[in-house]
Prior knowledge:
The structure is a homodimer. Chain A has helices at residues 10-23, 51-57, 82-88, 94-101, 112-115, 129-138, 154-168, 172-195, 202-215, 275-293, 301-318, 326-332, 359-362, 400-403, 411-415, 421-425, 457-463, and strands at residues 28-31, 37-40, 43-44, 65-69, 72-77, 105-108, 122-123, 219-220, 225-227, 247-252, 254-256, 259-260, 263-268, 389-392, 395-397, 432-434, 437-442, 445-448. By secondary structure, chain A is an alpha+beta fold.
Amino acid sequence: MSAGLPPQSPESYVQRRRELGARVSGPALLFSGLPRPQNYPANVYPFRPSSHFLYLTGCWIENAAVLVDGQRDVLFMPPEDPDDVVWHGPSPGWADIQRATGVSEIRDIAELDAAIDAAATATLPAVDATTRFAQGRMLDRAWAEPGVTVELDERDASLADAIIALRTIHDDAALTMMRVAAEATVEAHRAGMAATRPGLRESDVRAAMERPLLARDMVTAYPSIVTVHGEILHSRGYDNPIAAGDLLLADVGASNRGWAGDVTRTWPVSGRFSPTQRTLYELVLAAQLAAIEAVAPGARYRDLHLAAARVIARGLVDEGILRGEVDGLVERGAHALFFVHGLGHLIGLDVHDMEDLGDRAGYAPGRQRSTQFGLSFLRLDRDLQPGMAVTIEPGFYQIPALLAPGSAQTKAFDDDGSLDRDALAKFADVRGIRIEDDVLVTAEGPEVLTAALEKQPDDIEALVGSR
Amino acid sequence: MSAGLPPQSPESYVQRRRELGARVSGPALLFSGLPRPQNYPANVYPFRPSSHFLYLTGCWIENAAVLVDGQRDVLFMPPEDPDDVVWHGPSPGWADIQRATGVSEIRDIAELDAAIDAAATATLPAVDATTRFAQGRMLDRAWAEPGVTVELDERDASLADAIIALRTIHDDAALTMMRVAAEATVEAHRAGMAATRPGLRESDVRAAMERPLLARDMVTAYPSIVTVHGEILHSRGYDNPIAAGDLLLADVGASNRGWAGDVTRTWPVSGRFSPTQRTLYELVLAAQLAAIEAVAPGARYRDLHLAAARVIARGLVDEGILRGEVDGLVERGAHALFFVHGLGHLIGLDVHDMEDLGDRAGYAPGRQRSTQFGLSFLRLDRDLQPGMAVTIEPGFYQIPALLAPGSAQTKAFDDDGSLDRDALAKFADVRGIRIEDDVLVTAEGPEVLTAALEKQPDDIEALVGSR
């Protein structure tokens, strides 16, 4: 199997490691991790190495670690096991891996403990618990103890910052991978639209969408959301029937050797938006286009979020659902009754890129999450720079628990008459709409990586049920 | 979402818990486990509760535990979180869950620690490390320490034995679930055969096979093997092109709410077996049918394995590949140069049922694995009883590393002339064949749960490329 070898030329990985080596003062050690068992140790979920390790090596290798020390680097990995050849077939030898990754040296992972100075070596905690505890013990970290919350000490935090600085600005090799992820994601969505017809179940559409990803030997970058209950933001079920009056929301993205696509489209199961559905669909689309338009170097992502929020609020005022002055409504968070979540997030090797490092990746130094409902869910507040990739994904939802009269979020707006429930009632056939694309920041402005995928309502209607 | 509720009536779960309560002397506590993160905490693999928990409750609930104490039982689980309703939609309330599972009581998981007597309570270690360490600390188990090998103490071992006694003999509710898993598995294989044509890649066939499982809102019970290199027994890649002369081996099974199907078929990419392929295919099929025929209460599974081995050895002697007397060849393990692995394993909620408990489940008390190459891979050595379900899956493989002249396994057979490499060379177009079905032991003999799926070579040929 060639699965262990990196998909791109060694130069890109060497370059990333050299830049990391130049940015951190001592050695840095990043682990690939171990497969996660489903129900017994040998029955594992599809293995995915840690994104930091993948970024620096491109290698799909279990139980490995890369040590970057200035301009020198060592890949530690398990030696070839003759029994393994019988069961798993031939795999690339160390010489092949060294050539393909450009590392200075490959050594047996069993030698790692003796090869490092725990106090001097910076690391980032692996996401799988087994690796994290073993790693933490090897490196004397407090988070080696089960139950202890992971907090980065100063040395590890500075490694995190160096990695964030690198991974936030995508190099050409990264963009090549992301463009293919975007292309596959577009194909999946078109297949989903084409396969949609009343009387099927959500699972049928999901299956139609994931099949082309499997056919490309890809997996999904995150668990797909394919539902006629788009208002359930983190819906994980696929067992609802899909009926002629429903909107179907599909949030599905491909993982291209780890690099993520992340796209949402919402389409009418019948192939025709109702007038009310079309009105709110066009409103969400206008908000998305306004935010994309505002993508430019130096733009603050939070301002894009607020710009989209203002478009939504303005539209809701126009439809009589909200009453009042737009800026004031947005300031008070009235839009967040419907556009509940943040505008988007960084995207790269992780669909929420580097979310393992928390808001350290998404929020610029000195910026913190708001405590206001809605804005509190914003995952990104940085000034955009060329090479950053972000999602832009506004939405409109009617979440019963949130909109229930007397709920903590609606009370103030009911009390002062900002919310017109009679006007809202006319839009009962709209439970959830989201429109999401992946956008690269360039010096010239936005480049929509997933631009090939239809999103104008007429174009969507033409695709639905076409197969 | 109704995903949390059990798929079957409460009586079956109550009955299982009552039987467990009657078999263990003190309280027994079984955990559902936690989702396993892929690359950051919020991006998790599809959650699967521990099979022991599923068996006793049918509930798809994270971070829960069921306490069975004689005829009393308590389900501990997280309380409903109002924020959760906003993000995940309405979920069944405690009253619904209590009704659907028939438990005596539901309590907050936060109360579990105080509710149990660690020394008196038997448990089985969860498969996910995070749960296992938390559980082990709560119950003062040695395996709460990272790096410590899990060994069951006497009290936990007796719980394991009680669970094994129950889960080994499938009740009607279990069989209902397994029949649906079998039906879905059959559909997947037919779709794979129909979609096969030269020039595609393995991933295309895999996608065609998994699509109907996704459409049924099912997942695979284990990572699919779909390859033209059937000789790579644990092949995990899908990127080979499939060509007209190749045999394609597909080992794919559905998981029906946790209950597993496990089927292998091997078919010619062109739709026509070559004469040499047909000869060895028919040999493997004869071995499989002989082993299935021998399924009966009281039969020792190891004897079925050896019966299949004798059919294979006899056929290889007939083709001139092996030379000598069949019983002697099998005794020396000559067949294992080609039929490398064991005949099969228990199947139920796990595809290798209860393999989390090691050979304690697969091997009857007093029986141990052989050290002979081939027999050492046999996962099951029990006397069959009505209600047991097993796979029957002989195969023929030419594994280059194993058959290399001078390899540890072949040397003796080369030296004494038992292996005729010239005769073998005529079968170069056969790299790997396996034929596998799921078989229920009944008082009357074998009932093949996956019998609907074609396996006669003419029937296979008629299906391949039919779509």
